[in-house]
Specification:
Length: 96
């Protein structure tokens, strides 16, 4: 069964530009993962420090493989998460 996530990141203001430079590699490598259906990152128009990630995977196993992928460990866990003020991860389901 497909798994879909909405993730909200609020980046520490002084770190935003550095984080934005990491996203191209993250998106490219994530989209090439087996089991990834789509992966998009959006930036708030009102606040450049707020990002929304919309992720879709083929199943729960694909989500777990994403979390253990080398690029996720290197980019997200080590280089992005330490510079976030807020990180919210929501597993969602489509109603209509």
């Amino acid at each position: 069964m497909e798994k879909e996530l909405i993730v909200k990141w609020k980046i520490k203001e002084s770190e935003t530009q550095g984080i934005l430079t990491l996203l191209e590699e993250l998106v490219e490598k994530t989209r090439n993962e087996p089991g990834n259906i789509s992966y998009h990152i959006y930036q708030s128009v009102e606040n450049a420090n707020e990002l929304i990630l919309h992720e879709r995977y083929a199943d729960a196993d694909a989500v777990e493989k994403h979390k253990t992928a080398d690029h996720y460990q290197k980019i997200v866990l080590k280089q992005i998460i330490p510079h976030l003020e807020i990180r919210e991860v929501n597993l969602i389901k489509k109603l209509f």
